[in-house]
Amino acid sequence: MAVPKRKTSKSKRNMRRASNSKYVAVGYVKCPQCHEPKLPHRVCGDCGYYKNREVVEVN
């Protein structure tokens, strides 16, 4: 059975774990109707429009 010869330092351990935190946040786009930020390819939560059509009625 394989056993490590030396203890892994906290620095090495944390460097290995840090590679998972390099993800980039999702970019936002401006809604063409109300100019509020929204996720791309999604219905706008403020006005309910998608591709210049009202898809969801928002009060």
UniProtKB/TrEMBL annotation:
Transmembrane segments: none
Species of provenance: Alkaliphilus pronyensis
Sequence similarity: Belongs to the bacterial ribosomal protein bL32 family.
PANTHER family: 50S RIBOSOMAL PROTEIN L32, LARGE RIBOSOMAL SUBUNIT PROTEIN BL32
Protein name: Large ribosomal subunit protein bL32
Pfam families, alphabetized: Ribosomal_L32p (PF01783)
GO molecular function, a single term: structural constituent of ribosome
Key word Ribonucleoprotein present: yes
GO terms under cellular component: large ribosomal subunit
GO BP of this protein: translation
